[in-house]
Amino acid sequence: MRMLVTRPEPDAQATRDRLAALDIDALAAPLMTRRNLPANLPSPQGFAALALTSTNALRALADRKAHEPFLEMSVFAVGHRTAHEARLLGFTDVTPAEGTLGSLVTTIALARLEGPVFYPAARHMSGDLAQALAPHGLMVVTVPVYEMVARPALPEDAASALVRGEIGAVLLYSRRSAEIFCTLAGAAVPPGQRRSLPMLCLAENVAAPLLENHFSRVLLADHPSEEAMMALALAFAREQSGS
Question: What is stated as this protein's family in its record (predicted)?
């Protein structure tokens, strides 16, 4: 069993290491790379909290040490992995949600903040945090600090492995990565083979573009987290091996 990991680096290598610990061989094929954006960041004064929907936002800030003025702020993170990254960077007041934008909105709303929320975000956002929090009377100041740039083609080793039928499953963590994979798959996964290639997905919204492009063998993690993806990968590998 060899799996294809489509996450950007450094997350792709982290996932490969976790799969290796489960005795699952994996090949990294990052479909996107992070590019930091020039941004005029606001002063932390006057904000009630910092909202994070991605570890990449933290990395974009940390690359230029722009996170340091915000270290004393309360942080609301979309999930436990992002919360962990925030703590590693020195944030101490960190509250994780349960891995989805909806859970983050609920967590922030229940905090009854008295002031606006600063949201360092991606240029291409999968959801609108400001719009979601507006009914709760909260203003969100959104500043794009990074963008994820799609690769022009699959890495050569990944494309070759797909053509030779050496990939037992593909791991996909975001809707955009699924869309990019569908675009780049091309000759590596012709229409006749798309129905049989297993796609292990973080959530339903990740699976949607796959189904539209005739990748019909889709399995979903029980929860939008890396732990749930590893559990799904292990269960799938054991099923295929009969163990």
Answer: Belongs to the uroporphyrinogen-III synthase family.
